[in-house]
């Protein structure tokens, strides 16, 4: 049956799904990288498309901004048959070592959000990416010679609450940057025995209120998407 928010039928959604937050990015990915992409839902502007990449069936599903929306979408995608969920988005860098448009491959997400706390009843937990997804993403980045970093991200709810001091504190604890969906996606996938990962392109340094130039970020997003899709090809059938 169709889900409440992701209005799709079983069979519409591929086993492997890319998860951008932005519906425009979902449309761009589908039109630019996938062959034969068709729209299976536009309910609530949570645009979802399914096509193929190098012969592998892939869906691209909008999550919206933040963990509450991302958790709903992840849950419903798994009910519709998805087994690999791979977030593709942007993050604010916690340290100048993460340069504009660099690729960040998350191993785990510090859960500074309310959604995971509610799902876990406040129990301590470390939402982590699936090892095989991280491994496939790193292999893809290396093969394409994409500048990248591998490690912790922090998932937060309040976009404008982060300060340079907050960023540098968490950078000293190993956090590479801040984003808004990974912890919930990792947790929901783990609760249902699915795989999950998160690739992001750095859109700005938290100490700098300006985003990187549009053309620079677009190039970083392109590299991120190509790495994510090649990772899915590696994961297909495993």
From TrEMBL:
GO cellular component: a single term: cytosol
Leading EC class: transferase
Enzyme Commission numbers on file: 2.4.2.3
Residues covered by the Nucleoside phosphorylase domain: 16-210
Coiled-coil stretches noted in the UniProt entry, renumbered to this chain: none
InterPro entries recorded: Nucleoside_phosphorylase_CS, Nucleoside_phosphorylase_d, Nucleoside_phosphorylase_sf
Keywords, sorted A to Z: Glycosyltransferase, Transferase
Superkingdom of origin organism: Bacteria
The keyword rRNA-binding appears for this protein: no
Gene3D superfamilies per the UniProt record, alphabetical: Nucleoside phosphorylase domain (3.40.50.1580)
GO molecular function: uridine phosphorylase activity
Catalytic activity: uridine + phosphate = alpha-D-ribose 1-phosphate + uracil
PROSITE patterns noted in UniProt: PNP_UDP_1
Pfam families noted in UniProt: PNP_UDP_1
GO biological-process terms attached to the record: nucleoside catabolic process
Signal peptide per UniProt: none
Family statement drawn from the similarity comment of this UniProt entry: Belongs to the PNP/UDP phosphorylase family.
UniProt-recorded name of the protein: Uridine phosphorylase
Organism: Deinococcus phoenicis
Lineage: Bacteria, Thermotogati, Deinococcota, Deinococci, Deinococcales
């Amino acid at each position: 049956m169709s889900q409440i928010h992701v209005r799709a039928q079983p069979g519409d959604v591929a086993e492997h799904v890319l998860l951008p937050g932005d519906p425009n990015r979902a449309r761009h990915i589908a039109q630019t990288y996938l062959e034969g992409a068709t729209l299976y839902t536009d309910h609530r502007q949570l645009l979802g498309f399914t096509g193929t990449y190098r012969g592998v069936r892939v869906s691209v599903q909008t999550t919206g901004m933040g963990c509450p929306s991302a958790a709903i979408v992840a849950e419903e995608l798994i009910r519709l048959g998805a087994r690999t969920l791979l977030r593709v988005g942007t993050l604010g860098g916690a340290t100048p070592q993460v340069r504009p448009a660099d690729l960040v491959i998350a191993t785990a997400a510090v859960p500074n959000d309310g959604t995971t706390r509610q799902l876990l009843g406040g129990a301590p937990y470390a939402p982590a990416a699936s090892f095989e997804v991280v491994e496939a993403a790193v292999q893809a980045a290396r093969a394409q010679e994409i500048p990248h970093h591998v490690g912790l991200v922090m998932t937060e709810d309040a976009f404008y609450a982060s300060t340079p001091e907050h960023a540098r504190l968490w950078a000293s604890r190993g956090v590479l940057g801040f984003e808004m969906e990974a912890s919930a996606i990792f947790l929901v996938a783990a609760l249902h025995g699915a795989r999950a990962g998160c690739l992001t392109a750095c859109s700005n340094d938290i100490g700098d209120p300006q985003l990187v130039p549009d053309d620079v970020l677009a190039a970083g997003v392109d590299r991120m998407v190509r790495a994510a899709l090649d990772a899915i090809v590696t994961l297909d059938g495993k």
